[in-house]
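Hi all, posting the design record for the shared folder.

TITLE: backbone redesign
STEP: 1 of 1
STRUCTURE INPUT:
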């Protein structure tokens, strides 16, 4: 049990953590000693063992080198079982499970769609339904995962969420008109929260054409972390040069954003068009 959520004792992530702890204790290594070999913190090792953190492929490879397949355990194979689990790609799960929930400030830019944190269930379902080879079960699992992500907005102390969206997003038809009306209503409602700001960006903003991204400011002096979108796989990093590049791009896009009061009027006007 961690953070109020029960964990499936048979899940690949729980098995990964259990084997990691078993082999660490058999080798008489502390969590700190393993952390130094993995290039992470003792807290992260603890979370791996408790299955509250998703391991990366490099975690698995380093553990295999450390324990040298003791008892026939292959952490890379266990990792492969983890990423085969439903609920969204594993590279995004690290962001959704670790970065977003601990962020103090989240800045996002999306030139094509309403960002996931502010999507309605109907809007998200329509997007996932049109994914290549989407099965009904996979669609529902991804919708549920998206709705769970949004729970951070309902916390007593939610992150400050600053959203920039291209003006074209308001008129890009995702599902029937009813879906679009519901989505724009939701944008207007969520904008009333003191922790959420939504600004519409002029469609002539060329710096935004490079694609969607999110910037997370984290507590305790942790480095700013970026999630940059691509069709196949998102990129999560705190590399200084990459972060600086994305922050500069965000500021360049923000120069093309309408003030929030005007942005909300624009959303209201387009909402009436969809009626």
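Okay, here is what came back for every position:
SEQUENCE:
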């Amino acid at each position: 049990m961690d953070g109020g959520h029960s964990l499936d004792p048979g899940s690949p992530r729980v098995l990964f953590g259990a084997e990691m702890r078993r082999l660490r204790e058999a080798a008489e290594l502390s969590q700190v000693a393993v952390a130094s070999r993995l290039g992470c913190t003792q807290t992260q090792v603890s979370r791996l063992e408790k299955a509250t953190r998703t391991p990366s492929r490099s975690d698995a490879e380093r553990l295999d080198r450390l324990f040298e397949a003791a008892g026939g355990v292959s952490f890379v194979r266990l990792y492969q079982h983890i990423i085969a689990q439903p609920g969204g790609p594993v590279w995004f799960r690290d962001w959704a499970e670790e970065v977003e929930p601990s962020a103090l400030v989240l800045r996002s830019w999306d030139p094509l769609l309403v960002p996931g944190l502010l999507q309605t269930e109907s809007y998200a379902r329509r997007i996932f339904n049109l994914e290549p080879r989407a099965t009904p079960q996979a669609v529902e699992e991804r919708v549920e995962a998206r709705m769970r992500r949004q729970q951070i907005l309902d916390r007593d102390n939610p992150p400050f969420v600053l959203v920039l969206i291209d003006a074209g997003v308001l008129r890009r038809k995702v599902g029937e008109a009813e879906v679009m009306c519901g989505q724009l209503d939701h944008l207007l409602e969520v904008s009333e929260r003191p922790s959420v700001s939504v600004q519409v960006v002029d469609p002539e903003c060329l710096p935004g054409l490079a694609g969607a991204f999110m910037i997370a400011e984290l507590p305790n002096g942790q480095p700013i972390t970026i999630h940059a979108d691509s069709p196949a796989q998102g990129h999560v990093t705190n590399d200084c040069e990459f972060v600086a590049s994305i922050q500069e791009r965000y500021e360049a896009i923000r120069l093309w954003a309408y003030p929030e009061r005007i942005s909300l009027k624009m959303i209201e006007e387009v909402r009436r068009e969809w009626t």
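COMMENT: The chain has two domains: 12-83, 90-274.
Let me know if anyone wants the other runs.
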